[in-house]
Amino acid sequence: MSRAELLSPEGLRIDGRRPAELRKITSTTCVLSQADGSAYLEHGNTKVLAAVYGPREARHRALVLHDRAILNVELNVAPFSTGERRRRSKNDKRLLEMASFVKQTFEPVVIATLYPRSQIDIYLQVIQHDGGTLQACINATTMALIDAGIAMTDYVCACTAGWVEREAAIDLNYIEESSDTSEVTIAMLPKSSKITLTQMESRLHVDKLEEVFRLAGEGCKQMYEVMDKTIRDRAEDLARKMAV
Amino acid sequence: MPSLISPAERDYILKGIDCNIRADGRQRPDYREVILETGVISQTSGSARIRLAGGTDVLVSVKADIGPVLVDPETGEGADKGQIICNVECAPSASQQFEGRGADELNNELTQMMTRFLSHNTTSLSTSSTSSTPASNSNGAGGINLIPKTEVQDLGDGNFDFEVLDDAEDTEVVEGREDMPICVTLNKIGARHIVDASPLEELCTEAKLVVAVNRSGELCGLQKGQDGGIEPSLLLEMIQFGKTLGQTLIKQLDAKIKAEADADMIKRQNGQPVVKLGFFAQ
């Protein structure tokens, strides 16, 4: 397969980053007035909007659990989000899989027993896609859940890492992701360093795995700092407004 | 988004509209404050986010692609024209009722309406062998007020031998965008009609009329919605009203877009980066 050089002789990546450098992350919460909690997150050119509704009465009686809340995740990708316009159906297997990853990631973290017989809805909208959609979705969901005031044991921070040509690199963009690079996405609870999700695509030599994991873990910690700052700034802003 | 309304609330809204005063202090022909920003999504040929104060929030993107066109096999017509493909999606993040398959009906209705309004009124909208493909994504949170943000199309130029210039600077604004129609939705409540209905007002609506007009005041499309009827005399009045309002709206939006473009231009000339707020705008 012919492909562009992903790593320059100086060791810089295709977008000029160093291997262990994240893209610029910008985020904000409380972007939608209708939702109980919402967040908007940009990882470079990847843009995701998350909305959380609930805990509220479950839509389907059959699904109700008597001792805890159920999580419901729906993921939508805008037709214009990718380079080539393509409309994905709601039942696209890839999207359903991603939604299920997000659900599995958050099930152990959300303290669902506090909200018995109810449902928490998480709606994700990918507005622009430039690699690392899953990590962006998970990070946006964390912030939206916090914004909604839903009890969680910790933040969930996700980061991808992969083996790009001869080095491990984090936060792969679309070009790196699509040129047969092995890619690992992990989601981590930054305080206890526990991992709630690992997902790998393509193959990777087992000797390289540890290095990739270590980098992804470091990436998660950096993500945590950025997300925590946004949340704290927002809370401070609210507190200030309430004091007046 | 409410789905039920009490008789008292309905009465309040009805009588208010009769006296030309609405719950949020507007008069019958008043719009909510319109917030508009263009160029919010960098991967598209053109994009806009439009918000009506505290209510509807719509994100529109236009993508221009090289693709097959419909050519009449007998006359050979249409070879020099592009085609417009519309797609409207109501995201579940906007309202609970759009969850799962809940938005399908509305999506379909709006997509079809957009296609009809846009593709039959834009015969001059054609660049050789380039077909424009608008995709819109509507987060209809409050009243459904479709304003096709078609004024902001920026198409990359493509010439005959499929050589698309890969230069962000070397683009031209698509021809014929001045003829694009704009939609005004009129809601008939009691014997009167209003524009830009709030969610509660929408629940009292007997009949809804969507009027599409272009800059020169030509009627480009009409669609009646909801179950009530409209008297012929009132219908004519509503169309006339929609036409005048639509033309004013086009002027106002033009001014907004121009002001934004000018501000961006000044920033570029001074070497400052042009920062789009997008979803960071509060």
Automatic annotation (TrEMBL), chain A:
GO molecular function terms listed in the Swiss-Prot or TrEMBL record: RNA binding
InterPro entries given in the database record: ExoRNase_PH_dom1, ExoRNase_PH_dom2, ExoRNase_PH_dom2_sf, PNPase/RNase_PH_dom_sf, Ribosomal_Su5_D2-typ_SF, RNase_PH
Limits of the Exoribonuclease phosphorolytic domain: 21-150, 154-218
Keyword Ribonucleoprotein set for record: yes
Residues spanning the signal sequence: none
GO CC annotation terms, alphabetical: chromatin; cytoplasmic exosome (RNase complex); nuclear exosome (RNase complex); nucleolus; ribosome
Chief location: cytoplasm
Annotated localization: Cytoplasm; Nucleus, Nucleolus
Listed CDD domains: RNase_PH_RRP41 (cd11370)
Subunit: Component of the RNA exosome complex. Specifically part of the catalytically inactive RNA exosome core complex (Exo-9) which may associate with the catalytic subunits RRP6 and DIS3 in cytoplasmic- and nuclear-specific RNA exosome complex forms. Exo-9 is formed by a hexameric base ring of RNase PH domain-containing subunits and a cap ring consisting of CSL4, RRP4 and RRP40.
Family designation: Belongs to the RNase PH family.
PANTHER family from the UniProt entry: EXOSOME COMPLEX COMPONENT, EXOSOME COMPLEX COMPONENT RRP41
Record's protein name: Ribosomal RNA-processing protein 41
Organism the protein comes from: Linnemannia elongata AG-77
TrEMBL record, chain B:
GO MF, one annotated term: mRNA 3'-UTR AU-rich region binding
This protein's GO CC annotations: cytoplasmic exosome (RNase complex); nuclear exosome (RNase complex); nucleolus
Region (Disordered): 121-144
Main location: cytoplasm
Keywords: Cytoplasm, Exosome
InterPro entries: ExoRNase_PH_dom1, ExoRNase_PH_dom2, ExoRNase_PH_dom2_sf, Exosome_comp_Rrp42_subfam, PNPase/RNase_PH_dom_sf, Ribosomal_Su5_D2-typ_SF
Location in the cell: Cytoplasm; Nucleus, Nucleolus
UniProt-listed Gene3D superfamilies: GHMP Kinase, N-terminal domain
Domain of life: Eukaryota
GO BP of this protein: exonucleolytic trimming to generate mature 3'-end of 5.8S rRNA from tricistronic rRNA transcript (SSU-rRNA, 5.8S rRNA, LSU-rRNA); nuclear mRNA surveillance; nuclear polyadenylation-dependent rRNA catabolic process; rRNA catabolic process; TRAMP-dependent tRNA surveillance pathway; U1 snRNA 3'-end processing; U4 snRNA 3'-end processing; U5 snRNA 3'-end processing
Leader sequence residues: none
Pfam families in UniProt: RNase_PH, RNase_PH_C
Domain Exoribonuclease phosphorolytic: 31-120, 179-243
Listed Low complexity bias regions: 121-139
Family membership noted in the UniProt record: Belongs to the RNase PH family.
Record protein name field: Ribosomal RNA-processing protein 42
Organism whose genome encodes this protein: Linnemannia schmuckeri
